[in-house]
């Protein structure tokens, strides 16, 4: 056993014998297959999950996209209170997956977590639809004060809203890990299928966003809010039926105990054992061995970083005499210690993902505002600035095809050892592309301001290159990060770390909102009207983009450092 673990290079993977170690993370995991209820590794079960996610994304965004408009125009909430309500609801839907992931890993398993959450989700959507059917005061009331909606309508609608948020969070925490579990680790073909699955899963999410943002939103605003919400509810009902029907095809991983409890046990045991000396031979550290000699059991290999935590696995003579090894709050296994080390190694990578998420969220906010003040006419067509997000989605699909069909095969040819880009390298490329995306947005804004001074309006077509580059960053970084976190996660933390990877999107959006508010306020106080005024023609949005480019550059350097030091999960077999 190599105690120093496996180090990765952010530039070139030197060890040809560890071909794509991140993608396979261990071919020795085949001995874990008894934990899975056997099923084929074809595309039947993953296809059901992808269809499920597409319907779920349509339903969630069918509510989320126009929620602030509904609360303001139908329920007659105030402008500030409506925005605050939507932000709180968004936050709930993105933070609940952490709780759902803990339940999935410790008690329910991924399948049961999805089923229970989906049932709550459907009930919440039904209540939202029923609330929308209740008659209310005239839409867009201009009276002051405006007559508020009835108490019954508010109770039904908001009960359904938060029930749906909790259900949605539970689904997010377990659906992706469940889909990844449908592929075994026994051969390279299944691992390639798993990589394609992560890409297709992300595309399914985006497809749902586009569909709901066009068809469902149009129905809500032009036909009926109740009908729009009814369509979203139907999507969840169809997803539930499809999920239940597909149950026999799913491979299900059994829960392996609470990861949170194990983390605290290691910390407490390490603190209690502060006075004990670490043995010179790491093989003397405690590891539980299965008494079943007819089966092999996978354990995590020892690594030399975070040595203080190794004290949690130190065996003293006293413990051997009184058999206190059975007390997990006094002594923990090497595998438990290494699980916490994996989490600690992933946290810096996760933190750089948050800053990346803050930059990528600009295409939902400042990119649209930039497009609004540009010439949106292309010939006789008027292009809504928000619709360029659809172009970005198409570009993501093109980038996925380009990476899988061209870039990955090309790297196999270019590298003498025949290896391809590792997951950490692909994430690094995404971080690097974000620098260019922000710089391109800044240069475009500078050019737009110059054209305004000459009495001209720059065409919105000039925004397409920055959307194309940001789509490449999304393809390399976001999709690969989901795959990387799931692959590096110990069995007891698969759902939790996948949910943590998804959380970068939510935290990044919150960080972006805080940055915009801070920059607008500070620059307005320093030199009115500031960088981001209501009229962008009077501001300097390009300075804000340059700040994001600088932050992205520093973020990339920080990522390079931690990625180059990262030790991949390594599994050894006992039995």
Please name the defining characteristics of this protein.
575 residues, mainly alpha, two-stranded antiparallel ribbon, 64% helix
Task: Please explain how this structure is put together.
The protein has 575 residues and is mainly α. Helices cover 64% and strands 3% of the residues. It contains 16 helices and 6 strands. The protein has helices spanning 21-24, 44-64, 67-73, 79-133, 151-180, 188-222, 225-245, 259-272, 317-322, 334-360, 366-372, 388-414, 423-453, 464-488, 494-526, 541-565, and strands at 6-7, 297-300, 377-378, 381-382, 567-568, 571-574. The protein has a two-stranded antiparallel ribbon. A hairpin with a 2-residue loop joins strand 3 and strand 4. Helix 2 (44-64) packs parallel to helix 6, helix 6 packs antiparallel against helix 12 (388-414) and helix 10 (334-360) packs parallel to helix 15. The longest helix is centred in the N-terminal third of the chain and has 55 residues, at 79-133. Residues 1-40 and 139-143 have low confidence and may be disordered.
Low-confidence stretches: 1-40, 139-143
Q: Which outline best applies?
A: globular
Cα radius of gyration in angstroms: 26 Å
Strand content: under 5%
Overall pLDDT metric: 81
A few lines on this structure:
With 575 residues, the protein is mainly alpha-helical. Helices cover 64% and strands 3% of the residues. The longest helix has 55 residues.
Task: Describe the SSE topology.
Blueprint: E1 6-7, H1 21-24, H2 44-64, H3 67-73, H4 79-133, H5 151-180, H6 188-222, H7 225-245, H8 259-272, E2 297-300, H9 317-322, H10 334-360, H11 366-372, E3 377-378, E4 381-382, H12 388-414, H13 423-453, H14 464-488, H15 494-526, H16 541-565, E5 567-568, E6 571-574
């Amino acid at each position: 056993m190599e105690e120093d673990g496996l180090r990765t290079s952010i530039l070139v993977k030197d060890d040809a014998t560890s071909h794509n170690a991140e993608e396979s993370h261990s071919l020795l995991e085949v001995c874990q297959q008894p934990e899975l209820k056997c099923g084929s590794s074809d595309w039947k079960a993953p296809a059901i999950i992808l269809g499920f996610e597409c319907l779920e994304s349509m339903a969630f965004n069918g509510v989320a996209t126009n929620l602030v408009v509904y609360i303001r125009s139908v329920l007659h909430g105030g402008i500030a209170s409506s925005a605050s309500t939507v932000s709180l609801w968004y936050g709930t839907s993105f933070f609940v997956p952490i709780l759902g992931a803990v339940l999935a890993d410790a008690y329910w398993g991924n399948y049961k977590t999805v089923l229970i959450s989906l049932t709550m989700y459907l009930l919440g959507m039904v209540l939202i639809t029923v609330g929308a059917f209740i008659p209310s005061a005239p839409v867009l009331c201009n009276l002051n004060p405006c007559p508020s909606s009835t108490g019954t309508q508010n109770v039904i609608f908001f009960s359904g809203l938060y029930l749906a948020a909790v259900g949605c969070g539970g689904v997010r925490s377990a659906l992706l890990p469940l889909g990844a579990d449908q592929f075994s680790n026994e051969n390279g073909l299944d691992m390639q299928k798993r990589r394609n699955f992560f890409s297709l899963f992300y595309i399914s999410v985006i497809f749902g966003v586009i569909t709901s943002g066009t068809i469902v939103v149009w129905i809500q605003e032009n036909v009926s809010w109740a009908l729009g919400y009814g369509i979203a509810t139907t999507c969840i009902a169809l997803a539930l039926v499809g999920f239940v029907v597909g149950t026999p095809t799913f491979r299900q991983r059994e829960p392996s105990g609470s990861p949170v409890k194990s983390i605290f046990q290691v910390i407490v045991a390490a603190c209690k054992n502060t006075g004990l000396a670490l043995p010179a031979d790491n093989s003397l550290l405690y590891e539980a061995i299965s008494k079943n000699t007819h089966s092999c059991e996978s354990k995590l290999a020892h690594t030399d970083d975070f040595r203080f935590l190794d004290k949690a696995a130190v065996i003293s003579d006293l413990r051997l005499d009184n058999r206190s090894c059975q007390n997990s709050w006094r002594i923990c296994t090497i595998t438990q210690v290494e699980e916490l080390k994996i989490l600690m190694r992933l946290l810096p990578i996760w933190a750089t993902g948050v800053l990346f998420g803050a930059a990528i969220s600009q295409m939902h906010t400042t990119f649209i505002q930039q497009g609004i003040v540009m010439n949106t006419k292309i010939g006789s067509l008027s292009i809504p600035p928000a619709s360029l997000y659809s172009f970005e989605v198409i570009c993501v699909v093109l980038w996925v095809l380009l990476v899988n069909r061209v870039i990955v095969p090309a790297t196999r040819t270019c590298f003498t050892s025949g290896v391809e880009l590792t997951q950490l390298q692909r994430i690094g490329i995404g971080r690097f592309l974000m620098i260019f995306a922000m710089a391109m947005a800044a240069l475009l804004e500078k050019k737009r301001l110059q054209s305004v001074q000459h009495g001209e309006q720059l065409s919105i077509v000039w925004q397409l290159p920055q959307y194309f580059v940001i789509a490449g960053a999304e393809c390399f970084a976001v999709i690969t990060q989901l795959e990387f976190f799931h692959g590096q996660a110990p069995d007891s933390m698969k759902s939790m770390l996948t949910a943590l990877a998804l959380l970068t999107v939510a935290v990044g959006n919150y960080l972006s909102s805080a940055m915009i508010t801070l920059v607008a306020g500070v620059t307005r106080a320093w030199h009115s009207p500031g960088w981001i005024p209501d009229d962008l023609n009077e501001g300097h949005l390009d300075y804000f983009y340059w700040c994001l480019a600088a932050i992205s550059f520093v973020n990339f350097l920080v990522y390079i450092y931690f990625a180059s030091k990262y030790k991949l999960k390594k599994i050894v077999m006992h039995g």
